[in-house]
Amino acid sequence: LSKHTFSKHSPEHSCSPPLSHIKPRKAIGSSSVDIGPFYGLPSKVKDLLRQLRGIETLYEWQHNCLTLECLQQRKNLIYSLPTSGGKTLVAEILILQELLCMQKDVLMILPYVAIVQEKVWGLSSFGIELGFLVEEYAGSKGRFPPIKRRCKKSLYIATIEKGHMLVNSLIETDRIGDLGLVVVDELHMLGEGSRGATLEMTLAKILYTSKSTHIVGMSATLNNVGDLQKFLRAEYYTKNFRPVELKEYIKIRDTIYEVDSKAENGFTFSRLLNFKYSSNLKKADPDHIIALVTEVIPKYSCLIFCPTKKNCENVASMVCKYLNKEFRSHREKEKEDLIKDLKNIGNGSICPVLKQTIPFGVAYHHSGLTNDERKSIEEAYSRGVLCLLACTATLAAGVNLPARRVILRAPYVATDFLKKNQYKQMIGRAGRAGIDNAGESILIVQEKDKHLVQDLVTSPLENCYSNLLPEFTKGMQNLLLSLVGLKIAVTQEEVYDFLCHTLLGVQQQLLSKEKSLSELVKDGLESLIEKGLLRVKTVEKDQNSKITLVITRLGKAAYKGSIDLSYCNLLYKELKKGLEGLVLESSFHLLYLATPYDMVSNCSPDWMIYLRQFNQLSAAEQTVADMVGVPESFIAKKASGQAIRKSVDSASVNRLYLTFILYNLLKETNIWSVSEKFNLSRGYVQNLLNSAASFASCVLHFCEELEEFWVYKALLTELTKHLTYCVKTELIPLMEVAGVLEARANQLYNAGYKTLAHLANANPETLVKTIEHLSRRQAKQIVSSAKMLLTEKAEALQEEVELLLKSLKKKNHEFKYLNVLAFSFVPCKCTVNIINI
Ligand SMILES: Nc1ncnc2c1ncn2[C@@H]1O[C@H](COP(=O)(O)OP(=O)(O)OP(=O)(O)O)[C@@H](O)[C@H]1O
């Protein structure tokens, strides 16, 4: 085995024990464990890590963590290390062990859609080389229950919400035991609002229903680990390791202080800022941002976190106004290309701020940009073409974009003072492993905030508390409903027993002072019965009667579709009304039904635009407005500023306005022109589109449970597809590939890559030559993702063939004849694809 150990030149070599000491984990009751030299895995894994990630050796802590006794015994584990500590690699090795050695499926839960897509990209190449499937569960993507695969194992990469739906579907079909491992990144999300509640429900259900599934959670920002350990019945591993040292500073006036937890104030004097400001510059830049930035750029990269989106744009513009001309000549051609690229994305238009800042290597990054724009800017920043990004806090929790220096413009996110967790996430972006030998953060502080900042830097991380309580989220109601629906618990006592095994159960005395857990359960169940989502049934058994809970049809539809319980009655009513007179002349009426309720409250219509949009509808479409309770006279009066006597439901009015935006998007497939038409940021418009795609798939699952809505199934399937991609139809097959957005799909299509099979069989080298601004790494990832998707589709068809053959075999037909028959079920195009693979 010694030739398979880490490189001899590795600094870690001396501290890593020979790998012969590492016991591969054995499947209980299984004799076919693939014992490999690299943590039980084939040495090909090690080669792939070197080739694809440039990782030669594991850090000492990674090795120690992977060889923990508790992992050998398949116990649950929480591990916590600072940001950039290399936590993900450990999780990935555990995932590969589960897929390849234990031959079990794995679920990886990540916090955001963009991170899920990035992970699908990153792991598809491993899947292709090592023979497992990578399936995306984000937005409107993902099948419930997942297809049962005969040969290959699946790695499901999911957002919190989709992960929950996936687990529900596996419990319902009695397949939860197929999941060998569940990995949760950013475990501290358990404490974050309704998403935290959903994550808690998911994990509690797995713990309660499957003895063979183990859970591994990781985070950089955990404090009350004891509670989490109790909840997850997990061991804990932690280490204060960071490959690149991070130095923390704060700046008050023109003085820089180093954060020092041992000092009385929390920080000590470091240096004075050495920069001469003219009086003009002093006025424009009172916080010395230019001084701080120019100490590092353009040679090194820098991120400035700003409290608001507008602030990001202002900071980027202001900095460029005062940067000297030499900044323009740094990587000039690549910056020109980036501008061209962004123009291409915007169908000829480019944001005027970006047009002004990019020549200096500077850009802003926030949710007002479209996904395509963000991706281009991220790529340019990663390659060093851009050296400075002014961004909002979302970047810290999103994609991996480290910097030599991180500046926090103010200790605020919007108007809220920074939380310690947020602060740690942001400063944690400083220092790139393998690139920088140091990383530093500078928090800009005004005199008035000095004391708050002292508390911030010296205080421990925030605790993570359960969000299941009804006063925090609707989590409790959702949980109770699905427990009964999935038959995990069907009596009040059983539901109570389940609740004792949640994080809320662990923290109940701390969190729920007024009501006991059993009172909370009783109240919650009664409220669900009142809403018509549950009902009580008395079962007679052995002369005893037992009261059990049964889910109603509406209740089942609500939890299957993950529909917010406060809207499910309304949704039912609106769908029912639609059955009486759905206007099918266009998608307008159907779109109204798929317009997400939760975006309605923060929408404020422009009445002139409203009226204009209404007037552009056909006569049949106009009747929809009336049907949903928004009469033409109301819109006209609002537009002309007249008083309204008869009240109209503002939720329906706002919802219809959002429908107008979506309708325009589907017709024009151009986010830029639609956002201009409605005077909204393109990021908001895109967010609405993504939410609508997701909600449409939820409404589809809702309808699947209710026979009377059979007609919606076909309609909503198509609508979901249109909303998900919202591009010219011919681009859809290319955009199904994870990480291929509209602009890239357009380039690929124009270069002749018109189908998924074309892309899967493409040569990455040729792609690099024919597609502008495509790096070798991206080309390889696109081809791997396309291959993965094609393999997955082909496998699904093969499963179907097998199933058909099996059922026919049972009837004792002649096998030869059946084989031919079964193949005739496979569409020609797909057969070609299978052969290609
Ligand atoms: N053993 C290693 N050798 C070299 N580079 C490594 C090693 N392990 C991880 N890295 C690299 O270090 C960088 C940071 O790692 P990773 O993203 O896993 O950190 P993390 O602890 O998950 O951070 P975060 O909390 O920010 O998500 C990545 O680019 C990763 O490829």
Automatic annotation (TrEMBL):
The keyword tRNA-binding does not apply. It catalyses: ATP + H2O = ADP + phosphate + H(+); Couples ATP hydrolysis with the unwinding of duplex DNA by translocating in the 3'-5' direction. PROSITE patterns: HELICASE_ATP_BIND_1 (PS51192), HELICASE_CTER (PS51194). CDD domains: DEXHc_POLQ-like, SF2_C_Ski2. InterPro entries: DEAD/DEAH_box_helicase_dom, Hel308_SKI2-like, Helicase_ATP-bd, Helicase_C-like, HTH_61, P-loop_NTPase, POLQ-like_helical, WH_DNA-bd_sf. It comes from the Eukaryota. SMART domains: DEXDc, HELICc. Its EC number is 5.6.2.4. GO terms for biological process: DNA repair. It is found in: Chromosome; Nucleus. One of its GO terms (molecular function) is 3'-5' DNA helicase activity. Keywords: ATP-binding, Chromosome, Coiled coil, DNA damage, DNA repair, DNA-binding, Helicase, Hydrolase, Isomerase, Nucleotide-binding, Nucleus. It is an enzyme of class 5 (isomerase). The keyword Protein biosynthesis does not apply. Residues 1-23 are annotated as: Disordered. Gene3D superfamilies: 1.10.3380.20, 5' to 3' exonuclease, C-terminal subdomain (1.10.150.20), P-loop containing nucleotide triphosphate hydrolases (3.40.50.300). Residues 68-240 form the Helicase ATP-binding domain. Residues 787-814 form a coiled coil. Transmembrane segments: none annotated. Residues 292-480 form the Helicase C-terminal domain. Its main location: nucleus. One of its GO terms (cellular component) is chromosome. Belongs to the helicase family. SKI2 subfamily. Single-stranded 3'-5' DNA helicase that plays a key role in homology-driven double-strand break (DSB) repair. Involved in different DSB repair mechanisms that are guided by annealing of extensive stretches of complementary bases at break ends, such as microhomology-mediated end-joining (MMEJ), single-strand annealing (SSA) or synthesis-dependent strand annealing (SDSA). Possesses both DNA unwinding and annealing activities. Forms a complex with RAD51, stimulating HELQ DNA helicase activity and ability to unwing DNA. Efficiently unwinds substrates containing 3' overhangs or a D-loop. This is Helicase POLQ-like. The lineage of its organism: Eukaryota, Metazoa, Chordata, Craniata, Vertebrata.
